[in-house]
Amino acid sequence: MAEPATSARVDSWIWAVRLVKTRSLATAACRAGHVRVNGERAKAAQPVHVGDEVRYRESGFDKIVVVGAILVKRVSAPVAVASYTDLTPPPPPREEVALAPMRDRGAGRPTKRERRDLEKLRGRDDS
Question: What dotted CATH number matches 8-86?
């Protein structure tokens, strides 16, 4: 029987533990700088070892995990969760998240006054 792997590519590992849906999305996330290993920006082929901290930025928030087992093939969700320790802080309460102003659906185009107010809110006020 072959001995277990001691390292794996970071893109392959985050795909195998189901942090991303596809291997190509994992590679693209590495290229875009959304993956960090031990605080350093990671290229797709960078190896990860047991005990490494992997940060994956997803929709504006970092998911922080510590590698508990090396996986190179995608596994079931329960096995995947058991192969890392999740250190991600809980999301902020809804009250603390800034709400973006939304127009009612079907309200038509904004009036000139509403457009000015929106521009002012977005910080693009010319005056």
Answer: 3.10.290.10
